[in-house]
C-alpha cells in the first residue's frame, strides 16, 4: 500500500527533526567554541585597549616631557639670541668707536701734515727774515762805520752820544739844545731788530706825526747821519716851542 502525501510529509518532518536534534550537540559545541573565541578575542581586545591606553599615556607623558624640553630650548634660544644681540651691539659699538678713532687719526694726520707744511713755510720765512736782518744789520754797521767821523763831529761839536743798548737797540743822546740848560739830555732809542727801523722811545716825548715822519725818511734814505740831523732839528723845534 503506497504512502499518502501526508505520511510522506510527516516522515520528512520527522527526519528533519531528527537531523536537527543530531545537529544540536554540534551546534552547542560550535556555540561554546564561538563563545570561547569571542571571550578570547574580547580579552585580546581589552588587553590591546589596555596596552594602547598605556602607550597613549606614555605618549602623552613623552609629549609633556617634549613640550617642557621644547619650552626650555625656546628659553635657551631666547637667552642665546639676547646674548648674541648684545655681542653684536657691542661689536657694532666697537666698530663705530674704531671708525671714529680711525677718522680722528686721519684728521690728526692731516693736521700734522698741515702743521709740518706751515712749519716748513715758517722756517723758510724765518730763514729769509734772518738773512734780511743780517743784511740789514751788516748794512747798518757799514753805515755806522762810514759815519764814524761824522758822528764824532756830532759828539764833539753838537753834543751827541751814541750807545748800543743791545743787538736790537741803538740809543742817541743829544745835548746843547736847550739854551737855558746845555746839559739837558734829549734821548731817542732806535729799534733795528726788524726789516724796518722804528723809533722805540723819545725823551721828552715827541709828537706822533714827527716820529712817523722821522721813521719814514730813515727807512727810505737809509742814511743814519741825515736821520740824526733831522732828529736834532725836531728836538730843537721842541725846545723852541
Characteristics:
kinetochore; chromosome; alpha+beta; single chain; 10% strand; 4 strands; 4 helices; 4-stranded antiparallel sheet; nucleus; cell division; Copper Amine Oxidase, Chain A, domain 1
**E-strand count:** 4
CATH architecture of the domain at 159-238: 2-Layer Sandwich
Into which percentage range does the β-strand content fall?
5-15%
Give the CATH class of the domain at 159-238. Answer: Alpha Beta
CATH superfamily of the domain at 159-238: Chromosome segregation protein Spc25
- Ranges where pLDDT stays below 50 over 5 or more residues in a row are none
Category by helix and strand content:
alpha+beta
Tally the helices: what do you get?
A: 4
From the 3D structure, determine the CATH topology of the domain at 159-238: Copper Amine Oxidase, Chain A, domain 1
Q: Shape, please?
A: rod-shaped
| Averaged pLDDT | 81
Largest sheet: 4 strands, antiparallel
Q: Could you give the distance between the termini?
A: 207 Å
Report the helical percentage.
Answer: over 70%
> Rg from C-alpha positions?
68 Å
- Trace the largest sheet across and list its strands: 1-2-3-4
SSE pattern, N- to C-terminal = HHEEEEHH
Q: Could you explain how this protein is built, in words?
A:
The structure is a single chain. This protein is of the alpha+beta class and 241 residues long. 76% of the residues lie in helices and 10% in strands. Strands 1-2-3-4 form a four-stranded antiparallel sheet. A hairpin with a 6-residue loop joins strand 3 (186-191) and strand 4. It starts with a helix and ends with a helix. Residues 166-236 form the Chromosome segregation protein Spc25 C-terminal domain. One of its GO terms (cellular component) is Ndc80 complex.
Amino acid at each position: 500500500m503506497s504512502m499518502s502525501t501526508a505520511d510522506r510529509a510527516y516522515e520528512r518532518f520527522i527526519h528533519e527533526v531528527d537531523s536537527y536534534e543530531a545537529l544540536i550537540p554540534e551546534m552547542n559545541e560550535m556555540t561554546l567554541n564561538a563563545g570561547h573565541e569571542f571571550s578570547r578575542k574580547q580579552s585580546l581586545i581589552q588587553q590591546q585597549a589596555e596596552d594602547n591606553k598605556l602607550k597613549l599615556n606614555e605618549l602623552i607623558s613623552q609629549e609633556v616631557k617634549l613640550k617642557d624640553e621644547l619650552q626650555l630650548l625656546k628659553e635657551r634660544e631666547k637667552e642665546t639670541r639676547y646674548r648674541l644681540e648684545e655681542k653684536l651691539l657691542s661689536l657694532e659699538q666697537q666698530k663705530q668707536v674704531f671708525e671714529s678713532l680711525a677718522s680722528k687719526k686721519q684728521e690728526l694726520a692731516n693736521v700734522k701734515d698741515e702743521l709740518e707744511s706751515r712749519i716748513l713755510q715758517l722756517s723758510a720765512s724765518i730763514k729769509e727774515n734772518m738773512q734780511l736782518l743780517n743784511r740789514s744789520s751788516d748794512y747798518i754797521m757799514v753805515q755806522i762805520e762810514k759815519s764814524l767821523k761824522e758822528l764824532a763831529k756830532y759828539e764833539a761839536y753838537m753834543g751827541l752820544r751814541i750807545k748800543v743798548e743791545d743787538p736790537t737797540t741803538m740809543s742817541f743822546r743829544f745835548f746843547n739844545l736847550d739854551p737855558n740848560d746845555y746839559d739837558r739830555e734829549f734821548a731817542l732809542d732806535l729799534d733795528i731788530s726788524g726789516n724796518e727801523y722804528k723809533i722805540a722811545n723819545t725823551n721828552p716825548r715827541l709828537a706822533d706825526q714827527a716820529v712817523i715822519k722821522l721813521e719814514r725818511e730813515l727807512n727810505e734814505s737809509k742814511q743814519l747821519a741825515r736821520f740824526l740831523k733831522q732828529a736834532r732839528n725836531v728836538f730843537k723845534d721842541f725846545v723852541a716851542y
